[in-house]
């Protein structure tokens, strides 16, 4: 991500806890090419606990996103409240194939948390995001009924 605010210099963090606050708006998701999120107003926190070359990281997101209703295609606002924790350690190559564990190359100085925050938010979107019954666009509802 071009926005360096999301790059945390984990290699230079002191032992113990560290806290970061972020605001995720529409431009955040646009830059990451997450087109399904039309708008957002999300507060995110990243808490890092460093122990040697191991990091325990907790991501929290809370706010609201706007996506397209899968039934009528009108904008649909959805609440977001999610947590995701991960352990990060160093290794020879980047590896995110294990659930809850991220291995970053030994020479890595920074951790870009933007993709992890975006994934945390994106996983809150239901498989079928639709307005409550009777709240969809009436014109589209009529077309669907035909």
Structural overview:
With 146 residues, the chain is an alpha+beta fold. The protein has one domain. 16% of the residues lie in helices and 44% in strands. It is built from 3 helices and 7 strands. The strands form 2 sheets. It has a 5-stranded mixed β-sheet with strand order 2-3-4-5-6. A hairpin with a 6-residue loop joins strand 4 (54-68) and strand 5 (75-91). The chain is elongated and about 65 Å long. The N and C termini lie far apart (45 Å). The mean pLDDT is 93.
What percentage of the residues does DSSP assign to strands (E)?
A: 35-45%
The number of E-state strands comes to: 7
Structural class: alpha+beta
Order of helices and strands: EEHEEEEEHH
Oligomer: single chain
Largest sheet, spatial ordering of strands: 2-3-4-5-6
The helix content is 10-25%
Question: Could you tell me the mean pLDDT?
Answer: 93
Tell me the distance between the termini: 45 Å
| Alpha carbon gyration radius | 18 Å
How many DSSP H or I helices? 3
Reported for the largest beta sheet, the result is: 5 strands, mixed
């Amino acid at each position: 991500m071009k926005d360096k605010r999301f790059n945390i210099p984990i290699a230079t963090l002191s032992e113990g806890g560290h806290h970061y606050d972020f605001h995720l708006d529409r431009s955040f998701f646009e830059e990451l090419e997450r087109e399904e999120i039309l708008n957002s107003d999300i507060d995110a926190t990243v808490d890092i606990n460093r122990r040697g070359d191991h990091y325990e990281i907790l991501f929290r997101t809370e706010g609201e996103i706007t996506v397209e209703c899968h039934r009528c295609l009108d904008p649909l606002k959805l609440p977001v409240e999610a947590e995701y924790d991960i352990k990060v350690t160093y290794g020879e190559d980047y590896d995110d194939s294990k659930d809850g564990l991220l291995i970053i190359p030994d020479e890595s100085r920074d951790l870009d948390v933007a993709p992890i925050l975006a994934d945390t938010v994106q996983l809150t979107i239901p498989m079928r995001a639709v307005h409550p019954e009777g709240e969809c666009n009436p014109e589209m509802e009529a077309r669907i009924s035909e």
